[in-house]
Amino acid sequence: MKTYSTKKTDIRRKWHLIDAKGLILGRMASNIAQLLIGKNKVYYCSNLDCGDWVIVINAADIQVTGRKESQKKYRWHTGYPGGFRELTFKQMMDKDPAKVIQLAVSGMLPKNKLRAKRLARLRIYAGEEHGYEDKFKKKSESKNSPKSKVKN
């Protein structure tokens, strides 16, 4: 019995479009992390970047459960004396909803050298408009193509 090692040439990347309208932040972020890592693929290998491209639209319409909207805090330090900063989830959503999803997905990815490459394949948009329509039209056109319709 031979063992099979995945090579970089074996990796095939797909495009996924996720509409975040009404979705829960944590559950959505864990699904996005799975797609970026590539754990859903047969040839998954932990030392190679096997993940797919992920486009998230309607980031401004995500939800959180419980009282996280007012209680969840985002904290960081600028590096200067007195530079401690803190924003609630609601303030962060008003400022930059894409940053909320990016931080959630980043926290769910493994902390290794592949993390930045995986996050680079994540595109987040606050509204419905995105510049990757051509990646998703091919699939829908092939299903509705005139060749597949039955003639009477």
Task: Please describe what this structure looks like.
The protein is of the alpha/beta class and 152 residues long. The chain has one domain: Ribosomal protein L13 (Ribosomal Protein L13p, Chain: A). It is built from six helices and five strands. The strands form two sheets. A three-stranded parallel beta sheet has the order 1-2-5. Strands 3-4 form a two-stranded antiparallel ribbon. α1 (25-37) links the parallel β1 (15-19) and β2. The longest helix is centred in the first third of the chain and has 13 residues, at 25-37. The radius of gyration is 19 Å and the shape is globular. The protein starts with 14 loop residues before the first strand and ends in a 9-residue tail after the last helix.
Give the SSE layout.
Layout: E1 15-19, H1 25-37, E2 53-57, H2 68-71, E3 73-77, E4 84-88, H3 89-95, H4 97-108, H5 115-120, E5 122-124, H6 133-143
Helix pairs in contact: 1-4, 3-4
